[in-house]
Amino acid sequence: MGEAYIVEAVRTAGGRKGGKLKDWHPVDLGAVVLNELVDRTGVDPARVEDVVMGCVMQVGQQAINVARNAVLASKLPESVPGTSVDRQCGSSQQALQFAAQAVMSGTMDVVIASGVESMTRVPMGSSAALASQAGMGSYMSPGIQEKYPNIQFSQFMGAEMMAKKYGLSKDQLDEYAYQSHQRAIAATQAGAFKNEIVPLKVKDEAGAESDHTVDEGIRFDASLDGIKGVKLLQEGGAITAATSSQICDGASGVMIVSEKALKELGLTPMARIHHLSVMGHDPVIMLEAPLPATQRALEKAGMKVDDIDLFEVNEAFASVPVAWLNTTGANPDKLNVNGGAIALGHPLGASGTKLMATLVHALKNRNKRWGLQTMCEGGGMANVTIVERL
């Protein structure tokens, strides 16, 4: 089997709901990332053989194959196809894995994996809500309801179930959320995100134009007392808005090439794809899948948790990474070292390649070798990708 290499990885700085990126059409957000990847690598746009783009809410402005539409809005030629992937929050991590598989199989040499989500313009839950409003019914078919009677699949309930199952207190989750902001602040102030962020032109209410280069969700004045003071989302629970990922607008992407393309195009690899896998798990607790998926991935890769230098585990809710830490025994100093979605935002379909961009740049900045990325996904699934920095 051939090798697959990441030669560039970029993302936009996150925008809050109704914030700095509200005027950006999601198709154009995706196109900016595609353009940046070919500009930075110097690869002839016509050499790109496919664009695989993750997106969760594929309705409205993100409908009718957002990947192909982003290609048409970009500098890539019409000869470049595009396909859109929905594996819920892991959509663009799955896009990355599909792209890597195409390259490793030898059927393609240059593929862009990317993701986009404008949660301002296409709110979370839009696809199900619009179907219901149009009288098209629910995705909860009679077959699903027979198998899971009287159950409504809910990520929020899954987060609470995880906190209860793993004995996590509100104080523990509050402290983790505070740490996420502190690490994001430190990373921003140190310029750790500089090389991964694509500047975007934005206008303020007065019409003044500026470059958007700082994740809008970071609370630079965050305090532990302030986080502790946020009310519970459910009486008797442990989760609050402060310990949940932030609604976010953004796009991200990586360019993946074969060894043949690496040599022909004179490209310098950032990382090599070492392992990729996906796992289904309990759809009721839903967010637990990264725990067994990580263990299985390490076993399949012939590695131990201590072999990994940096981890990116998506902070959908604080209970996920905290339970993941407790279960895997990973060193907490290696996890989400530049903060996570609680501080930086979680732009759904864009989060997979967003986390990978942060991971490969962090490996480079810290002169580390091995990185592992995973995230929980709606329906009870998890992707795991292990990369080796080169």
UniProtKB/TrEMBL annotation:
Belongs to the thiolase-like superfamily. Thiolase family. InterPro entries: Thiolase, Thiolase-like, Thiolase_C, Thiolase_CS, Thiolase_N. This is Acetyl-CoA C-acetyltransferase. Keywords: Acyltransferase, Transferase. SUPFAM superfamilies: Thiolase-like (SSF53901). It comes from the Bacteria. Residues 267-389 form the Thiolase C-terminal domain. It comes from Phenylobacterium terrae.
